[in-house]
Amino acid sequence: MSWGHYLFGFSGRLNRAKYWLWILIYFVAIAVVSAVIYAINSPTAGSIVPLAFSIVALISSLAVMAKRLHDRDKSAWWLLIFVLIPSILLGSGLALRSTARS
Question: What pTM, to 2 d.p., does this model score?
Fold first, then answer.
């Protein structure tokens, strides 16, 4: 399995060891991105670099979670429960909080 398919492919299976490898890669990438932002010390780069990293990390995490679900003999549609519903609840909670302050 190539690194591109490992991190961004939605087909196949992923065992626990490779899942934890992805977690390690993710934490190392966070440290590197944080160091780059600190080293650049620019307002523009301080907003573009985290945005780009967040998009790449989101796609990679969805792919890894889908493959991990496939390994557990579950459909990747379960991601809707794991990702979409908490996002909706968070958004509605933030909306309620902002209306309560008004």
Answer: 0.79
